[in-house]
């Protein structure tokens, strides 16, 4: 049994981390969040210590290490995106490995600095790239690898469409602040960009067509794919046939006009990720770099509007 701490315990994704810690047979010793509406802990670790102030949490972690034979070996991080870098540093310097939600950090240079701290402390940084562990995506990667072995120059045409509706609260929260979330591409798109570049190769061209507070869209040329992508939290852009079902989410990926389905099992992969880390696997700083470089570039590119090879949904916006 390993001992864990959790930073960002009241957040949307935190229960998946609690569930993963429990389902892998480990123990949550302490949790931190400035918001104290944290009754979800009763379903997982009611005996865990809880703190609303970082200073008291810091002191507890330090005292625990000094006063107990067993250490806190892992600190899981589900805090707002802009705090990930700082909280990862805290974990490593506290003598624990870090398991951090995506996006791992907001900028590639943060990864370079974290690699130095890894070397100094002897501890590792892991990130949650759960799509790499999804059975359907693993099967797609194997299929594409087989086809490319026979035809290395093949280039696939891909459309990525992901809409996950959010209310007005979203733009008042840290998620609506680009400096804190990294913007739409970082906040809801980073794991899709990781998945696509993992399967189809590195980025050769990156263009943004739409950049609005609720929507990002663009085009990427990967080594073996042309990708038109559209990401939004605006309910208005969801297709009418999806709205009639009552759904507020639309996720669609086509590869050479064939729909790729991976909806099932999407929410259960945190436990799979933890199992992979605890048995010596996991995805570290090097694996995270490519997707961070992609979303960082998108954040700094100027949109060009309806020009070139744009996603058809762009016409819903412009």
Task: Explain this structure.
The chain has 318 residues and is an alpha/beta fold. The chain contains 12 helices and 12 strands. The protein has helices spanning 14-23, 54-67, 84-93, 108-121, 135-150, 169-172, 178-181, 184-200, 240-243, 269-278, 285-300, 314-317, and strands spanning 3-7, 27-32, 49-51, 74-77, 97-100, 125-127, 156-164, 203-212, 215-222, 225-232, 249-255, 258-260. It has a 6-stranded parallel β-sheet, sandwiched between helices. Strand 9 and strand 10 (225-232) form a beta hairpin. Helix 4 (108-121) runs antiparallel to helix 11 and helix 5 packs across helix 8. The chain is globular. It starts with a strand and ends with a helix. The model has no long low-confidence stretch (mean pLDDT 95).
Entry summary:
The chain is of the alpha/beta class and 318 residues long.
Features:
318 residues, alpha/beta, 12 strands
Per-chain topology:
Elements: E1 3-7, H1 14-23, E2 27-32, E3 49-51, H2 54-67, E4 74-77, H3 84-93, E5 97-100, H4 108-121, E6 125-127, H5 135-150, E7 156-164, H6 169-172, H7 178-181, H8 184-200, E8 203-212, E9 215-222, E10 225-232, H9 240-243, E11 249-255, E12 258-260, H10 269-278, H11 285-300, H12 314-317
Helix pairs in contact: 1-10, 3-4, 4-11, 5-8, 8-11
